[in-house]
From TrEMBL:
The keyword Lyase does not apply. SUPFAM superfamilies: alpha/beta-Hydrolases. The chain crosses the membrane at residues 269-291. Residues 43-180 form the Fungal lipase-type domain. This is Fungal lipase-type domain-containing protein. It comes from Mesorhabditis belari. GO terms for biological process: lipid metabolic process.
Length: 292
């Protein structure tokens, strides 16, 4: 059984408002940390944006402020998105204070959706580089993660966190912001590997490149992404048949949209369990944070 060591840690988030990410309930970013003494595992889960507005869409496309990334012995000149970096930096003392059970054999499952996916990515990198976790025992699963790093840090990321699945739902536009630098200079926002690209109904998937986080044969092939409220609701806020944003409000039960062709999560598990079990497990752990 998991012992909840920190539940619903709140980060006052005016910086997310400045980024255009405006939750509908109190401008909060929330996370939890859970520990299993039996399995010697930690789970760190970050929730995403709470609610939807034009500010989310407009703001996400303008998140182009990047800071030099420093963690542990790394000072290689690579950069990380300022807003996600600051979010993790604000929570870092609390995260470290709740990792009292760690040892070199501890496995970490780190997960998050949207904004939470970006913060999960930064957290995984810091745990590895600062020697708080063994890098090959970190399991990072993100869903609808926006571009978090620049080219240098994104390409170094697999050395820090080798086991990473970055799940993208069909034409979800959020993973395609901030816009990538297409000039060839490789200085702008860039994804780390490995993208797992699901189709609209979540009944098939593509395992994308392990060399590049910007595989042109996966979700990047869509090209013209539509940052509208309807598309964000159907593609970004709905993963594995679950309306992620409304899951807790609906009593932590599947509530498929009548207009959606995506199967609810129970059907998805039944029909594709042998393929995506390892992704669905952290996704379900992520949903726990919505059941407050």
């Amino acid at each position: 059984m998991f012992r909840i060591t920190s539940f619903l840690l709140f980060l006052s988030a005016p910086l997310f408002v400045l980024a255009g990410i405006l939750p509908s309930k109190g401008n909060e970013c929330q996370m939890y940390i859970a520990y299993s003494a039996v399995k010697n595992n930690y789970v760190i889960a970050f929730r995403g944006t709470n609610g939807i507005s034009e500010l989310i869409i407009d703001g996400l496309s303008s998140l182009n402020t990047y800071d030099a990334f420093q963690a542990g012995t790394y000072n290689g000149g690579g950069r990380v998105n300022h807003y996600f970096y600051e979010g993790v930096r604000s929570l870092w003392p609390t995260i470290k204070a709740n990792l009292g059970q760690t040892n070199p054999d501890t496995t970490f499952f780190i997960t998050g959706h949207s904004l939470g996916g970006a913060m999960a990515s930064v957290t995984a990198a810091r745990l590895s580089l600062e020697g708080l976790a063994t890098n090959n025992l970190i399991r990072l699963y993100t869903f609808g993660q926006p571009r978090t790093w620049d080219y240098e840090t994104a390409t170094a990321f697999p050395n820090w966190v080798p086991y990473t699945w970055r799940t993208v739902h069909h034409a979800d536009p959020v993973p395609h912001g901030p816009p990538m630098d297409t000039s060839g200079a490789k200085t702008g926002p860039y994804h780390h590997t490995r993208e797992i690209w699901f189709n609209e109904k979540f009944d098939s998937l593509s395992y994308c490149s392990i060399q590049s986080g910007e595989d042109p044969t996966c979700s990047n092939q869509i090209g013209d992404f539509n940052f509208t409220v309807d598309v964000v609701k159907s593609e970004h806020l709905r993963y594995f048949g679950v309306d992620v944003n409304d899951y807790g409000a609906n009593g932590c039960a599947d509530s498929p949209s009548p207009s959606s062709s995506t199967a609810p999560i129970t059907s998805t598990i039944t029909s594709t369990a042998s393929i995506i079990h390892s992704i669905l497990t952290p996704f379900i752990l992520l949903l726990v944070i919505l059941c407050k």
